[in-house]
UniProtKB/TrEMBL annotation, chain A:
Signal peptide (UniProt feature, chain positions): 1-34
Entry-linked Pfam families: Mo-co_dimer, Oxidored_molyb
Source organism of this protein record: Pontibaca salina
Stored PROSITE patterns: TAT
Record EC number: 1.8.2.1
Organism lineage: Bacteria, Pseudomonadati, Pseudomonadota, Alphaproteobacteria, Rhodobacterales
Gene: soxC
Cofactors: Mo-molybdopterin
Key words of the record: Metal-binding, Molybdenum, Oxidoreductase, Signal
Record's protein name: Sulfite dehydrogenase
Domain Moybdenum cofactor oxidoreductase dimerisation, chain residue ranges per copy: 293-412
Automatic annotation (TrEMBL), chain B:
Organism the protein comes from: Pontibaca salina
Ranges annotated as biased composition (Acidic residues): 209-222
Gene Ontology molecular function: electron transfer activity; heme binding; metal ion binding
Record keywords: Electron transport, Heme, Iron, Metal-binding, Signal, Transport
Protein name (Swiss-Prot/TrEMBL): C-type cytochrome
């Protein structure tokens, strides 16, 4: 079981074997002595003598093969097929905060489409002074901005409402990614079409839809549309990947991922919401009394320990240990993350790797000593509004067990004395 | 409407958003033509805005539904396998396992019309006429016991239909019910007396493991390897590049069809050995009358026949239940047939 998520590559296994040897000497820490000289050091290795790969070996490179287990994975039983489905970012194996596009989770409702820039059109219509059509080239001529934002599916951790289900941070919390976007404020485009015709903007909405067969229409209140929504065409410096909406997607900072329309093709200014399928049948949160909340757009503060975690056991034995994870809030910046090793009895404040950016992932570290005893690891995020990430019990008390979406509860990993971790719930 | 809008009105005044838009803008883009707006602006709203003229009755709806929808959603909209259930589930919203359907959960009928019109059938969206969408919507209402079997739905009586769960929704109230509770100073020490593990993920054991993935990958590799292997068993050598292209095109079919080792019937029949095979003859698959009869009349899937069918399934074979819009490009058709040829009968 502990091997489940380990690399298939022989080298990764060799690495693990090596680490077992290291454990033996760990108690003596820095003063450890090797019994025999390490041949990796004393013998001239192939790579230190012959050639490596030439330039142009891979005009667009992929990660080295030893990292081939750091990939998106799906949970086949969740959906009927992979055309309308979701997979999960390998957050357990990443560090820092930026998610490479190639392993950032995907969610499509009708498959990822191939749409050329030449074939791309964006229409703005409805309550505007002049309905407009833009080509991709037109979009490149508007002033643009760069921002880093997280995108979290409203259903992230949704399988965990009723109890601990999936064994791995990738599966419990991997419907999230964090990228640097280059794009145009939606406000600029709306103003280009002219909002005079809309009159009083306080009760107006924009309706956005994609070019794929699902179209996935969503209604967004005008206040948000004019605030920080971006019409983006680059992510992490390069063109959006097909699966992230090439050539143009919407970025709706801090709000649920379903609203981040991919293959964006139309924006309509309206005097009310459409109440489309994705904002009635789906993405509404059923409460215990049978009534459902709608328009639950904001993703509340949340955090997760990415390592150690079920896919990232402690292989090195007692001694120095880095506990790390991610925290985020749709309401703004993360101001603090606390970590507990005893299931929430006592908490220590973790170190934020950098000053947190608004509505973006924040990396935290707790640099600690492990004595080799069991741990019940938890993390708890606090954002700039003073909101403290709740426990599952607190959420259940208010919402019951059937709301599927917006589970931002504290997660617990049980780490046993072998360093292996499991998804558990605690009292 | 809601406290949300009050809030936003206040915010707008603060940030001066009520001011008119920029004077001149950047002069980019061009004016959208009315025909263009009409083609894309098909959203239908709760008050009926956007509904085209038209009508459809329950019985027509049943026929259309059986042909284009039942393969996934079941003859009575009850859902097949993991595909969505569209009917039933009334009074289950407080159960342990609530069943959320058009009848039990959806607050607006406009959403049904809008979604079916633009997104279904899955794999062939935007191929239904307005009258067909009215008829299907009427049938879904009937399946949910909301209307009788003589009901005719039209743009004129659309707003008269009462949806059972119309009052089942409230606007996000987290700012009142949750945020104050969760915004107190967090405890750092002696936060609870004892901690017990109350549940473990390993008990359920539903986490996919890499072992399975390996198997799936192996299968995929076998599938890829099958292409050159097939060269030896078939008389005409296959064009490997074309096969590879075909594999890409086959992504449009995969929601419904399987090919290769261990392929099974799903929404559509498995397709091993289909090129040259009689039409409608895969064991255990429940064909439409049209396709079954074509087979009984001796029709065979020659390459040409396949191309004609795949270019426009419903035009070429009236009454087929394959709801797929068709492959428009000749290149794709050629690649598709080549790809299918690479999977001989087992």
């Amino acid at each position: 079981m502990s091997d489940t998520f380990k690399g298939k590559g022989a080298s990764r296994r060799a690495f693990l074997r090596g680490s077992v040897a290291a454990v033996a000497g760990a108690a003596a820490a820095g003063s450890a002595r090797a019994a025999t000289p390490d041949p990796l050091i004393t013998e001239v290795q192939d790579w230190a003598s012959g050639f490596g790969a030439p330039v142009d070996d891979a005009p667009y490179g992929l990660p080295i093969r030893f990292e081939s287990d750091v990939v998106r994975r799906n949970v086949p039983w969740l959906t009927a097929d992979t055309i309308s489905s979701i997979n999960f970012t390998p957050i357990h194996a990443l560090d820092g905060t930026i998610t490479p596009q190639g392993c950032a989770f995907e969610r499509h409702h009708s498959g990822a489409i191939e749409l050329k820039k030449e074939d791309y059109r964006l229409m703005i219509n409805g309550l505007v002074d002049t309905p407009l059509v833009f080509t991709y080239e037109d979009l490149e001529r508007f002033p643009r901005e760069n921002h880093v934002y997280f995108c979290e599916c409203a259903a992230n951790s949704g399988m965990e409402w009723a109890g601990a289900q999936l064994n791995g941070a990738q599966f419990t919390h991997g419907m999230i990614h964090n990228m640097e976007y280059s794009g145009i404020p939606l406000r600029t485009l709306l103003e280009e079409a002219g909002l005079g015709a809309a009159g009083d903007l306080s009760d107006k909405w924009v309706y956005v839809e994609g070019a794929d067969a699902s179209s996935n229409g969503r209604s967004i209140p005008m206040e948000k549309a004019l605030d920080d929504v971006l019409v983006a065409f680059k992510a992490n410096g390069e063109a959006l990947r097909m699966e992230h909406g090439y050539p143009v997607r919407l970025v709706v900072p801090g709000w649920e991922g379903n609203m981040w329309l991919k293959w964006l093709r139309r924006i309509e200014v309206m005097d009310g919401p459409v109440e489309a399928r994705e904002e009635t049948s789906k993405y509404t949160d059923l409460l215990a009394d049978g009534v459902a909340r709608k328009w639950t757009w904001v993703m509340d503060a949340k955090s997760i320990i990415t390592a150690p975690s079920p896919q990232m056991p402690i292989n090195h034995g007692p001694g120095a240990l880095v506990i790390t994870g991610l925290a985020w809030s749709g309401h703004g910046r993360i101001t603090r993350v606390d970590v507990s090793k005893d299931g929430g009895k006592t908490w220590e404040t973790a170190r934020l790797a950098r000053e947190s950016e608004t509505k973006a992932l924040t990396r935290f570290y707790l640099d600690t000593e492990w004595d080799g005893s069991e741990m019940l690891l938890q993390s708890r995020a606090i954002d700039e509004t003073g909101y403290v990430q709740p426990t599952k019990a607190q959420l259940r008390e208010i919402r019951g067990l059937n709301s599927i979406y917006h589970n931002n509860a504290i997660q617990t990993w049980h780490v046993d004395s072998n360093g292996e971790a499991e998804n558990v719930e605690v009292s | 409407m809601s406290k949300y809008l009050n809030l936003s009105a206040a915010a707008l005044i603060l940030s001066g958003l009520t001011a008119p838009a920029l004077a001149d803008g950047f002069g980019l883009g061009r004016e959208a033509l009315p025909e263009e707006v009409a083609a894309w602006d098909v959203a239908v709203r709760p008050d009926g805005t956007g509904l085209p003229e038209g009508s459809g009755d329950v019985w027509t709806g049943e026929e259309v539904f059986t042909d284009y929808c039942a393969a996934c959603h079941g003859d009575f909209a009850e859902g097949v396998d993991n595909w969505p259930q569209l009917a039933g589930g009334r009074n289950t919203l407080t159960d342990d396992r609530p069943v959320k359907t058009v009848g039990s959960y959806w607050p607006y009928l406009s959403t049904v019309w809008d979604y079916v019109n633009r997104s279904m059938p899955f794999g062939a969206a935007q191929t239904l006429s307005a009258d067909e969408v009215y008829a299907i919507t009427a049938y879904i209402l009937y399946s949910n016991d909301i209307v009788g079997d003589d009901f005719v739905l039209s743009h004129e009586n659309f707003l008269d239909v009462e949806m059972p769960n119309a009052d089942g929704f409230i606007v996000d109230d987290r700012p009142e019910t949750e945020y104050p509770l969760f915004s107190t100073e967090p405890c750092m020490e002696n936060c609870k007396e004892s901690v017990e593990i109350t549940m473990r993920a390993s008990i359920l054991d539903v986490t996919p493991d890499e072992g399975n993935e390996d198997a799936a990958q192996d299968e995929a590799q076998d599938e890829a390897a099958a292409a050159p292997a097939a060269d030896e068993t078939t008389t005409a050598a296959l064009d490997a590049a074309l096969v590879a292209e075909g594999e890409n095109v086959f992504r449009q079919c995969r929601a419904c069809h399987q090919v290769g080792d261990g392929a099974k019937n799903r929404v559509g029949p498995m397709l091993n050995g289909i090129v040259g095979a009689p039409v409608g003859a895969v064991d255990g698959f429940n064909y439409s009358k049209a396709m079954a009869e074509a087979g009984q009349n001796g029709m065979v899937w020659t390459e040409d026949e396949l191309k004609l069918f795949l270019a426009n399934p419903r035009e070429h074979m009236k009454g087929t239940k394959m709801s797929f819009a068709g492959l428009r490009k000749d290149d794709d058709l050629a690649a598709m047939v080549e790809y299918l040829k690479s999977f001989p009968a087992e």
